[in-house]
Amino acid sequence: PALDGAFLCSPLGGLMGAQAVLGLLVWALIADTTYHLHAAYGWVMFVSIFFWIVTVLFFVTYLLQLQLKFYVIPWPLVLMIFNAVATVLYITAFVTCAAAVQPTSWRQWDYNRRAAASFFACLVMIAYGASTFFSFRAWRGLGSNAATSQVTDHA
C-alpha cells in the first residue's frame, strides 16, 4: 500500500490528525488524575478512548488507501455517520467533563488536568463537527465536477 499524501493535505486528513492528537490529550490528562473516584469521568474516558482508537484506525486506513481494497463498503457514508456520532457523544463528554471539574478539589493538579481535559474535549468536539461537515460534503459529492469524475472512472 502506498501513502496518500493528498489525504494528509485534505481537510478531512488534517482534521483526523488533529482529532487523534487532541483526543489523546483528553484521555491522557484524565487518566493522570484520580478519575476512578468520580463516575462522570468514566464516561469521558470511554468516549475519548473509543473514538481515539477508531479515528486512528480510519486515519491509517485512508492514509494507506486501504479503503480502495474494500470497495463494497460505502466509505463516505460510513465516515459521515462516524463523525456525526462522535460529535454528539463528544458534546456529552465535554459537558460532563466540564461540569465535573471542581475548583475546590483537594488535589490542585487534578483540577488543572481536568480543566485542560475539558478544554481539549471542546476542541475535539469542534474538530469532529467540522469533519462531519466535510464528510457530508464528500458523501453528497459537493464540490466536484460530476462529468469529469464519470469520464475518468470509465476511461
UniProtKB/TrEMBL annotation:
InterPro entries: MAL (IPR013295), Marvel (IPR008253), MARVEL-CKLF_proteins (IPR050578). GO terms for cellular component: apical plasma membrane; myelin sheath. GO terms for biological process: myelination. It is a multi-pass membrane protein. It is found in: Apical cell membrane; Myelin membrane. It holds the Pfam family MARVEL. One of its GO terms (molecular function) is structural constituent of myelin sheath. Coiled coil: none annotated. The keyword Metal-binding does not apply. The chain crosses the membrane at residues 12-30, 42-64, 76-101, 116-136. Residues 7-140 form the MARVEL domain. Keywords: Cell membrane, Membrane, Transmembrane, Transmembrane helix. Forms oligomers. Belongs to the MAL family. This is Plasmolipin. It comes from Nipponia nippon (Crested ibis).
